[in-house]
Amino acid sequence: MPFERRQALKLAALSPAVLTTLLACPALAQSDWPSRPIRMVIPYPPGGASDIIARMLAPHMTELLGQTLVVENRPGANGFIAAEYVARSTPDGYTLLMGNAGPNATGPALYGSRTPYDPIRDFSSIMAVSIVPTVVAVHPSVPARNFSEFLAHVRALQGRFSYGTAGVGSAGHMGMELLKSQTGIDMTHIPYRGSGPTVADLIAGVIPMSCDTAPVQLPHSQAGRVRAIATGALQRMPDAPDLPTIAETVPGFETVSWGGVMGPAGLPQALVLRLNAALGTSMERISPQLASQGIQPQRGTPEEFATYVAAEVRKWTEVVQKMGLRPE
Questions:
Q1: Which of 3.40.190.150, 3.20.20.80, 3.30.70.270, 3.30.465.60 would CATH assign to domain 3-132+257-323?
Q2: Domain range annotation of the chain
């Protein structure tokens, strides 16, 4: 049944009061959505997992929706700039966010009331698209060949070791803070404005180590520019079976990133469902490419994604409170 007819049947079954409210929204009152390009806002510069996934999705979403999906990078403030921009946008289906663990869970957990939006109330969850293992990689000049040697190396430097991440409150940052609390090591965090600048400085030897996502770290490790020594996933990655987990050295340790598409709060359910369907088909098409880069593709309902995000916010809020973390 065509989308427009399904919507007409749904509207006919609603009460007059609800119908009046829905018809006040142009996206539902008209059947021409989308009638112009759709923007998907990325919280970081080009080169990170969120950017990679969005650019893979874009041509398929464009084909399925009949309008161009434009990928727009809005880095800064640890992802808060992009997330706040989308949260304050009109809920008409033309402005979306490639949300992820940083600006939508770990960052708000760390900054609390200083976060310029509510990570739950200010967004409409559409679909989870990825779980992305983190990877600890070092510059080739670092003598550690495995994670046990890395811990020993950091301890020997007695606080003079630094590491970079995509930003304060990112999955990499929070994961390393958790590692510090579980092992007693001392490291200095150097936050960047995204994964691209972080890995560039790692390759150049400006920083000796970074914790970032697998699709960012593994290609450079495979090329010999950096050395991956462990993944934050609980299980070894199928595409990198020789890379140990941190949990093999620090039992129970886990830190991963995740990605998912969101819109501003109040996005009409009809548009949420249509976007979810298009994303599901697009993800099915690009899943093999994502898996080859260490990204675990996800699909599911808007409700499942909303539940997952809420659980992540609770989890990291508890970690922040337990460890007494404060924004740097």
A1: 3.40.190.150
A2: 3-132+257-323, 133-248
State how far the Cα of 11 lies from the Cα of 245, in Å rounded to an integer: 51
pLDDT at 49: 87
DSSP state, residue 245? B
The one-character DSSP state at 240 is: B
Q: Pick from 100, 106, 98: which is nearest to 262 by CA?
A: 98
Do 203 and 134 form a contact (C-beta atoms < 8 A)? no
Burial grade of 28 (CB within 10 A; 0-12, 13-18, 19 or more): buried
Q: How many CB atoms lie within 10 A of CB 13?
A: 8
Instruction: Give the strand pairing for 256-264 and 95-100.
Output: antiparallel
pTM for the full model?
0.79
Which tokens belong to 203?
């390759």
Judge whether residue 18 has pLDDT over 90.
Answer: no
The answer to whether residues 76 and 193 touch, using CB atoms and an 8 Å cutoff, is: yes
CATH architecture of structural domain 133-248? 3-Layer(aba) Sandwich (3.40)
Query: 176, 163 in Cβ contact below 8 A?
Result: yes
Q: What is d(CA 77, CA 168) in angstroms, rounded to the nearest whole number?
A: 8
